Amino acid sequence: MDRRSFLRNLGVLAGAGTVSMALGNIPLRAFSRSFLNIQAINGKVIVLLQLSGGNDGLNTIIPFEDSIYYNKRPSLGIKKEEAIKLNNLTGMHQSLQPLKALYDDGMMAVVQNVGYDSPNRSHFRSTDIWLSASDSNVLDQQIYG
């Protein structure tokens, strides 16, 4: 599904309160009505996308000036000349070209290297911590009762 189709489908389904659709058989859900008064916050909205599964952060935002990236990814690394340059050190994957104008206009930012204290290196436990916004020493049962 291309970006235009995604946005069109989102608009068609937006009247239902929440949007449910699939992108490559992956279910997507979004709230179509804000819980906030947009005018009260100067019309600024933050949209966070959490990509999981086959998405790879290093091939989404590419550290094209870091030789370690290419040493560790001799066949998977995105070539510097194929990356959409964001600054002198990093670029975006070429499929993200539609987002470049938003980035250039200061309407999109990239936040890298976000983590938490004392990570245990478990992808699954880390995801639990991020999604629950709990401290790393708090288990789900303590959060949800």
Descriptive notes:
The chain is an alpha+beta fold and 145 residues long. It has 3 domains: 1-45, no CATH class; 56-114, no CATH class; 117-145, no CATH class. It contains 6 helices and 5 strands; from the N terminus they run αββαβαββααα. The chain has helices spanning 3-13, 57-60, 67-72, 97-104, 123-132, 140-144, and strands at residues 18-23, 26-31, 61-62, 84-85, 91-92. The strands form 2 sheets. A 3-stranded antiparallel beta sheet has the order 3-5-4. Strands 1-2 form a two-stranded antiparallel ribbon. A hairpin with a 2-residue loop joins strand 1 and strand 2 (26-31). The longest helix has 11 residues, at 3-13. The chain is globular. 5% of the residues are buried.
* Number of structural domains: 3
Mean pLDDT: 73
* Helix content estimate: 25-40%
Biggest β-sheet: count, sense, barrel? 3 strands, antiparallel
Strand order of the largest sheet: 3-5-4
Number of helices, counting only DSSP H or I runs of 4 residues or more: 6
The helix-and-strand class reads: alpha+beta
